[in-house]
Amino acid sequence: MLTVEQARERVEDIVARAKRAGADAADAVIAADRSTAVSVRMGALEDVERSESEELGLRVFVGRRSASVSSSDIAPETVAGLVDRVLAMAREAPEDPWAGLAPEVRLLHGAPPQLDLDDGAQEGPAALKERALAAEDAARAVAGVTNSEGGSASAGRTITALATSHGFAGAYALTSHMTSASVLAGTGDAKQRDGAWHSARHAALLEAPEAIGRLAGDRTVARLNPGRVESGAMPVVFDRRVSGGLLGHLAGAIAGASIARGTSFLQDALGTRVFAPGVTIRDDPHRPRGLRSRPFDGEGLAVMPFDLVVDGMLESWLLDSAAARQLGLEPTGHAVRSIGGGPMTSPSNLYMEPGREPRETLIGAIARGVYVTELIGHGINGVTGDYSRGAAGFLIENGELTRPVSEITIAGNLKDMFLAITPASDLEFRYGANAPTLRIDGMMIAGD
């Protein structure tokens, strides 16, 4: 596997080759990955997987024409052929008035921020097996658990390098560690399944596998004997397991490409109220050891903490350079780069600030409603904001969680849902996108 320095030197060399061959501009990205994963079931080893890969993506510009190629073979002799092919492709591509590299004045210069994303851990299969077994054993020990889908543990390290022909070259490494367990409770047609997992950049930050397993078992047993709920409008409370998904819908709606194409339900919302007063949503690429932290974006731009929504008001789009040019704005440092194509936009560590009320207070004020712990399907219309998804969770009666419910559908429109959100005070940073427990009044429930 390449070192960080080797990866940076390699992309610089590839870009220089493209320039010498006739490209007006070029950028290149390399992703090198090494990972090990172990899975167990019913106390026995089930699978051990080891993977290593090195991939290259090269994009060249000939005037306003561009083309991209990718390869899993980054040997110098292979790269020479790739450069020739991608230049031939670019010369035949249609012109794009918005194409080009990021503004040179916005490139990251100097030392990148130190985000502590690489713990240097080299966990082997034996240690991963021990962690997976501990998680599954703890889950199976919960009273009421009758079967197991298994436990798993993984560890990996990724190196990302990017270079552009107008002066940027950077690379960084990050590690990832994960533990999970999934079990079943009940018998026959009454079986229920649930699980738990935790992921961290540093192995030392992982929750104990026994705690993950117990949580998986408790969640599964709590779902036994679910009922239905009557159809109608009522409050819905989103557990932290699923509340961050609403931030994902926001990110998609304010992505520059969607705005430029006119295909977003928030098309004309910049500078207007889109959330309830008091709601603030931030993006922080500099969060130390964050799951989506990054020292620079996919075009080599400097990144910084960013306010997207302040006191309910939408402050910015998420813009890469192409979308910014089309909209007459400046890029926001939210470009991400895939190996096989040009930049797209994506947030980093996206989160909603906590509210003032404890979770118990949000629930305690509800006479009858639904507490959602699982969402099913992808019934989101990004153009209109219409929202309809299958759900499972618990019935709220007189301020208390009572019996489990399943096979229901919750529906609304994201514009109305955002304006009706009340966040609890229980934010924790556990996923890439994080929100506290959220209450939304007046959603439609389709049940019995």
TrEMBL record:
InterPro entries: Metalloprtase-TldD/E_C, Metalloprtase-TldD/E_cen_dom, Metalloprtase-TldD/E_N, PmbA, TldD/PmbA_N, TldD/PmbA_sf. Residues 125-224 form the Metalloprotease TldD/E central domain. It comes from the Bacteria. Pfam families: PmbA_TldD_1st, PmbA_TldD_2nd, PmbA_TldD_3rd. Residues 231-447 form the Metalloprotease TldD/E C-terminal domain. Residues 26-90 form the Metalloprotease TldD/E N-terminal domain. Gene3D superfamilies: PmbA/TldD superfamily. Belongs to the peptidase U62 family. This is TldD/PmbA family protein. It comes from Sphingomonas canadensis. The lineage of its organism: Bacteria, Pseudomonadati, Pseudomonadota, Alphaproteobacteria, Sphingomonadales.
